[in-house]
Structure formats: structure tokens, C-alpha cells
């Protein structure tokens, strides 16, 4: 008998986020690889109505069709919305929930009415440390779930510097759909890259201190890196017109800058950009360093699966993340320089290790299988 799993995503309001789409797609493809019938549920709030909603839904269906998932698209409409006739059978209802074996929820905003309609529900925390602080501060109220998973190794352990909010968190690695991310050789002369927003005005209050928590703040101590390494570095950024001074400063310091929306607006553009890169170089948001959540980005996993070594900022002691094999983790600019040198001097070895690490520790099929065994 086929297991039916509904995965709750949040992509319909961000149609130009190809990388954001893969956050949810990797989990869906892992479930599909385990023989599950996958339904893709989007919560549509009152901001999107009428023709725009139909347009977004049609585009989402086209994207899902490329991965044989379109027949499972469901939309939960805000109760205040009028249902456009063009949505037809795509509208969620409680009867459909009753025919699913489980809800895999990666959308913190999904209403309690929806979550409670499923016999089993598993929340996956993809913002470890931050989610727990949002819960503690009352910024988020989660519906009750049957199971709670987190992608941060320290969440709910004595090593955590933040509360668990009384929730029994169980660790699961993030995942990447290995079969959909083959190893790929980059063209000659390609750069180490990453894809990111830059300055979004995010702030965190923790232990009596407020600090900026955007990517710009994470990169500040490392801005001179291009002048100190013998490898090209490129940032695919979502920069607004008001951030032109930022662009000029980065260019002056030796970074190559491309428009993130131009190279990664769709899932396949995003994949092509990663697979044409030599590897990844990235800093993390300051909260990941300060909270020591031992987290790794789903984006980094896509680089690893593609056979691209990933040079990433250290986020805490880990049981599954190496420091110098496929992933190379740094704490200072001098360590970052050494990591770049290590990859450049042993690129083929590090490329092989990157792919192997993705296969052995982050493969979506194995990770979702363990999750299913625990929850069903």
C-alpha cells in the first residue's frame, strides 16, 4: 500500500526564489524516492488573490511537473479569501487531509486547523536556534504536532544556549536529492560562489544583546578575502538600487557580483549556477555562529552533491560535519585563506570528498526513510 505524505511548503509568495524552492523540493523528492505519493501543500494568505493567485498556482504547477509532483499540488486559502474558479481541484479541504498518512510541515505559519486535520504531523525546524527564540518570545505560535524534528544538532541538548521551549526536538540532518544533483565539472576559470540576500534589516535579541543578523554582517570580517587568495570569489546577491554603494565597495575589494535573480530565479537556473561553480565560499548569518547550532545550509548540500567543495563558516561542534574533507569550516579570515589554499592544492580530492559526504550523510532518500520509520 502506498504511503501518502503531504509536505507543507512556502514558495508561492516567492516565485523568484529558485534556491528557496529547493529547500522543500529536496524533501519531497526524498519521499518520492521512498515510493511515497507526495502532495505539495501551500498556505496562501490574503495578500494574494484573484488572477495573481491563479498565475502563481499555474507557475508552481509547471515547476512541480518537471519533478512529477504536479498532481499533488494543494492550496490552503486564507478563510477571508474568495476562491477563484480557476483553482478547481487544487484547493485543500479536511477530507483530503484524511487520506494522507502524514503531514511533513516545513512552514511555521500553517494554521492549527490544517495541522490538526492530519492523523500524524511532523514539524521540521529549518531555522535552529532562531525558531526556539521566536517561540520563547511569542513571535511564533506553533500548532501541536505529533513529532518535532530540527536541523540543528545542538537544539534541545545541554550544549544549546537557547531554550527548547519544552518541545522534544529530535535531530535530523537536512537533505539533498542526490539523484537530481549529479556531480558536474565546472568550466575553466569559474569562481567559488554563493547565492544570498545581503542586507535585510534582520535583528536578533539574545542574552540581553541585540545584533544584526543578515548576510552582510556575517561577511564583514571577511570582505578583504579576495585580495588574499589566489582564486576568484563571486557573490550572487539580491541587492536593491539603494545598495549600489555596497556593490561598488564589494567590487573594489575584488568580489565579483552578479544579480541573484538573474542566475537563480527558477529551480533549474539555481541548479545550473551551482553546478557551473568551482565550489562554494560563504559566511553564515551571525546567529548561527553565536548560537553554535551546528547547522549546515541546504544550499551547501547542493554544492556538495554536485561535487563542489564547500568552504563555509564554522557553526559549532558537529558529529557529522567534517572540518577539512569536502566541507572545510573556518572561524577566522586566516583559517578561510588556509581552506581556500587546501582546496586549490587538492581540488580533485576535495571534489570527490564533497560528493561522498553528500551521498553518505545527507542523501534525501535515506534521511526521509528514517523520518518515516520514526513517525509512521
Characterize the structure shown.
- The protein is 35% helix and 19% strand.
- The chain is an alpha/beta fold and 376 residues long.
Structure summarized in a few sentences:
The chain is an alpha/beta fold. It has helices at about 20-35, 50-65, 95-100, 110-115, 130-135, 215-220, 245-250, 260-265, 265-275, 285-290, 300-305, 335-345, 345-360, 365-375, and strands at about 5-10, 35-45, 75, 100-105, 120-125, 145-150, 170, 190-195, 205, 210, 235-240, 255-260, 280, 310-315, 325, 325-330. Strand 9 and strand 10 form a beta hairpin.
Strand content: 15-25%
Low-pLDDT regions: none
Second CATH tier, the architecture of the largest domain: 3-Layer(aba) Sandwich
SSE run:
EHEHEHEHEHEEEEEHEHEHHEHHEEEHHH
Radius of gyration, taken over Cα atoms and rounded to an integer in Å: 21 Å
Structural domains: how many: 2
CATH fold category name of the largest domain:
Rossmann fold
CATH class of the largest domain: Alpha Beta
Total helical elements = 14
Count of β-strands:
16
Strand order of the largest sheet: 3-2-1-4-5-6-7
Amino acid at each position: 500500500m502506498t504511503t501518502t505524505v503531504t509536505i507543507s511548503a512556502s514558495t508561492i509568495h516567492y516565485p523568484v526564489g529558485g534556491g528557496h524552492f529547493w529547500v522543500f523540493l529536496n524533501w519531497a523528492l526524498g519521499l518520492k524516492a521512498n515510493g511515497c505519493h507526495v502532495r505539495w501543500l501551500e498556505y496562501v494568505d490574503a495578500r494574494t488573490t484573484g488572477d495573481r493567485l491563479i498565475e502563481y498556482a499555474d507557475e508552481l504547477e509547471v515547476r512541480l511537473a518537471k519533478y512529477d509532483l504536479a498532481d499533488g499540488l494543494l492550496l490552503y486559502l486564507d478563510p477571508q479569501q474568495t476562491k477563484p474558479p480557476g483553482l478547481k481541484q487544487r484547493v485543500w479541504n479536511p477530507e483530503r487531509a484524511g487520506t494522507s498518512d502524514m503531514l511533513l510541515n516545513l512552514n511555521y505559519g500553517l494554521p492549527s486547523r490544517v495541522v490538526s486535520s492530519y492523523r500524524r504531523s511532523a514539524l521540521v525546524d529549518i531555522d535552529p536556534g532562531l525558531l526556539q527564540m521566536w517561540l520563547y518570545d511569542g513571535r511564533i505560535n506553533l500548532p501541536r504536532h505529533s513529532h518535532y524534528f530540527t536541523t540543528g544538532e545542538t537544539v534541545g541538548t545541554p550544549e544549546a544556549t537557547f531554550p527548547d521551549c519544552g518541545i522534544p526536538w529530535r535531530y535530523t540532518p537536512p537533505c539533498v536529492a542526490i539523484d537530481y544533483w549529479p556531480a558536474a565539472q565546472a568550466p575553466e576559470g569559474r569562481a567559488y560562489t554563493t547565492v544570498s540576500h545581503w542586507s535585510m534589516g534582520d535583528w536578533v535579541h539574545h542574552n540581553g544583546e541585540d545584533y544584526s543578523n543578515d548576510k552582510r554582517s556575517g561577511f564583514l570580517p571577511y570582505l578583504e578575502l579576495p585580495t588574499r587568495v589566489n582564486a576568484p570569489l563571486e557573490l550572487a546577491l539580491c541587492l536593491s538600487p539603494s545598495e549600489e554603494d555596497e556593490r561598488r565597495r564589494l567590487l573594489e575589494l575584488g568580489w565579483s557580483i552578479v544579480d541573484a535573480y538573474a542566475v537563480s530565479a527558477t529551480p533549474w537556473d539555481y541548479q545550473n549556477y551551482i553546478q557551473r561553480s568551482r565550489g562554494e565560499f560563504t559566511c553564515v548569518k551571525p546567529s548561527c555562529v553565536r548560537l553554535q547550532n551546528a547547522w549546515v545550509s541546504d544550499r551547501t548540500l547542493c554544492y556538495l552533491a554536485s561535487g563542489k567543495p564547500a568552504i563555509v563558516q564554522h557553526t559549532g561542534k558537529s558529529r557529522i560535519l567534517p572540518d577539512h574533507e569536502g566541507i572545510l569550516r573556518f572561524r577566522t579570515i586566516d583559517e578561510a585563506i588556509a581552506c581556500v589554499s587546501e582546496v586549490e592544492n587538492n581540488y580533485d580530492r576535495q571534489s570527490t570528498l564533497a560528493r561522498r559526504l553528500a551521498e553518505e550523510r545527507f542523501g534525501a532518500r535515506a534521511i526521509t526513510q528514517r523520518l518515516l520509520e520514526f513517525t509512521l
